[in-house]
Amino acid sequence: MAERKIFAGPRVRRVRLGLGLTQTAMAEALGISPSYLNLIERNQRPLTVQLLLKLASVYKVDLDALQGEGGGLAGRLREVFADPLLAGEIPGDQEIIEVAEAAPNAALGLMKLYRAYREQAARLSDLSDLLAREGHETSIAGTRLPIDEVRETLQRRPNFFARIEDAAETFVARLGPGDELPGALKAWAKNEHGIVVRTLPVHAMPNLRRRYDRHSMRLFLSERLSPFDRTRELAMEVALLALGQEIAAELEDLNLSTNEARRIGRFELARYAAHALMMPYGAFLTAAQRARYDLDVLRSRFDVSFEQAANRLTSLARTGTPGIPFFLMEVDHAGNAIRRAGAQGFPQARFGGLCPKLGLHAAFLQPGQVLVDRVEMPDGAAFLTLSRTLEGPQSGFGERIRRTAILLGCDLSSGGDTVYGEALPGAVGTVLAGTACRLCERQGCLSRAEPPVTRPLGLDEMVTGLSAFDFQ
């Protein structure tokens, strides 16, 4: 009879950490290699019956605890994910069982948050009913703002829209812009729709980037914008005119719930279409592969900004001719996350992007410089990341505007295909990051901003650790 295989990596890891052992020490005691134990803890190799018996004999581990399935905790989690707000997020029970087994304390925290959410939702509903009876209709319905719905929808899916890509390539081939895309787009807008494009000074358009006047058939662009951003604004207007059907079809597939969310979604798709016009898929992918994804080469070749070229790299996901699966996130200098995209849906669970150690935050200290890092997460996942500040709109004297930075990343296994792989530091220079401080259990982290929710604080009058939040 074939021996039973059990995937119980998180429970083995909890046993090891509870005993204060390194992977090397436990592997030696079990008679296996450290690399094999690492695969077991990451659920990439099974825990066989022989290893179960060895664990029981060496460490006096309860076999039932290693083979359990989260017990009542999984059942209580099923109640949480049965809520209409979360229905469909998890396709089956197995993932719920894995959460209950791998992070029971986090699962308990999730259930506490869910109870608090239900209480607040009930209070909000009562308040809305009261306001409605008094003739005050609330303008925001549900638990999320429309922009939150759009962002979450786009972050869960690949940053690739096939209809827009195909239509954009066909349009650019017919347009034949050569090296003068802005001039060709202006000529098309004038000849096909009678639209004249003008750049206005700040005093004439102080609060807008772009404005289309339907009465005078003029498109106004702000002089605050760089030449690259003016081209994008122009390309967005042309995309809405020339690729309107394709944008509408992709918007329908997003299945957004409100008119405001659909309006925001249409804007995001128009922005995507503008990049497709400025950097047609086939030509851009070929250039990227030849240049080994060197962003400075690509921005020069297509006459675009660093941010535009980086965004375009996250959308190279055409079936049959994909590029490296990059993901991207943008934050401002206060740490607010503005945008996440790419890599078949932003890898929130594996990467997160909120760790203070990431080069994304250090980039503000070295404006305009590309910072290349090898980032390793607590579960062993490793990434190549590039970080750089963005220029943004031109400010006037005395204006204090928000500046942002972007992080472009991919799995380390793909890093060797890029020019940046050659600049990666050795093991000593690896950035040991986490998804977020609240979820990270790295001991002695000098960058920790919050204690982990999974461990109690280790307050001790006799001992003070390096971290601002010591935990047991």
Automatic annotation (TrEMBL):
SMART domains xrefs: HTH_XRE
InterPro entries reported for this sequence: Cro/C1-type_HTH (IPR001387), HTH_RamB (IPR026281), IrrE_HExxH (IPR010359), Lambda_DNA-bd_dom_sf (IPR010982), ScfR_C (IPR018653), TransReg_Diox_bact_type (IPR050807)
Single Gene Ontology MF annotation: DNA-binding transcription factor activity
Keyword Transcription regulation among UniProt keywords: yes
Signal peptide: none
Keyword Transcription regulation: yes
Keywords of this entry: DNA-binding, Transcription, Transcription regulation
Name of one Pfam family that matches: HTH_3
GO CC, any one term: cytosol
Domain HTH cro/C1-type: 12-66
CDD domains per record: HTH_XRE
Source taxon at top rank: Bacteria
UniProt record similarity statement: Belongs to the short-chain fatty acyl-CoA assimilation regulator (ScfR) family.
This protein's name: Transcriptional regulator, XRE family
Organism listed in the record: Neorhizobium galegae bv. orientalis str. HAMBI 540
